[in-house]
Design brief:
RNA binding; metal-binding; RNaseH-like_sf; 5 strands; 6 helices; 5-stranded mixed sheet; Nucleotidyltransferase, domain 5; single chain
């Protein structure tokens, strides 16, 4: 059972990102403040849910949350500031997008920067422990997947609709065959052989 709150505050925001381990596309972050009585039978860490379940949950979360915010950190910025900083920056921007200022922030993972002097707590595997982080993980994942399906239409050879930009064998084979494009992250090791010496 996921817990409703970590702190004693009623306006506690959970935040999470998606796409950190991808070879292309944005890092997408979300922040969610849920009411105390929020309940849904299958809300869990988005990685534990099927795509269909996540798609069902997204409108339910958006309609029933006290507030939610989503932000995109595009691949050029990910290259510029590195993926960890992009994740934290994205989480900050998604909190910026909340229509209500939270009193406390819980963060999935173990790294965060102070946000406007609001107290926070990092929680490893927080998306499998707290409802608001799980809800944020669902929003971040569904918004990102939707975007990857959209750019898939322009570049179907990479099959982003299916692999979502993760380093699957199929994705890497497509990079070998067609090269990288504008959506790929330039600082990422797109292919395992990139770091091997020729000769």
């Amino acid at each position: 059972m996921l817990k409703p709150n970590y702190s004693e505050f009623s306006l506690e925001a959970g935040t999470e990102e998606a796409g950190r381990g991808c070879l292309c596309g944005p890092v997408v972050a979300a922040a969610v403040i849920l009411p105390k009585d929020f309940i849904h039978p299958f809300l869990n860490d988005s990685k534990q849910l099927s795509e269909k379940r996540r798609e069902e949950l997204r409108p339910f979360i958006e309609e029933n949350a006290i507030a939610f915010g989503v932000s995109f950190v595009w691949q050029d910025e990910v290259d510029e500031i590195n993926v960890l900083q992009a994740s934290i920056t994205g989480m900050h921007r998604s909190i910026d997008a909340l229509k209500i200022i939270p009193e406390f922030i819980i963060v999935d993972g173990n790294k965060f920067r102070d946000y406007n002097e609001i107290p926070h707590q990092t929680i490893v595997k927080g998306d499998a422990k707290y409802l608001s982080i799980a809800a944020a993980s669902v929003l971040a994942k569904t918004y990102r997947d939707e975007y990857m399906a959209k750019i898939h239409q322009e570049f179907p050879m990479y099959n982003w609709k299916k692999n979502k930009g993760y380093p699957t064998k199929e994705h890497r084979n497509a990079i070998r065959e067609f090269g990288a494009n504008i959506h790929h992250r330039k600082t990422f090791r797109l292919l395992p052989e990139q770091l091997k010496l020729k000769g």
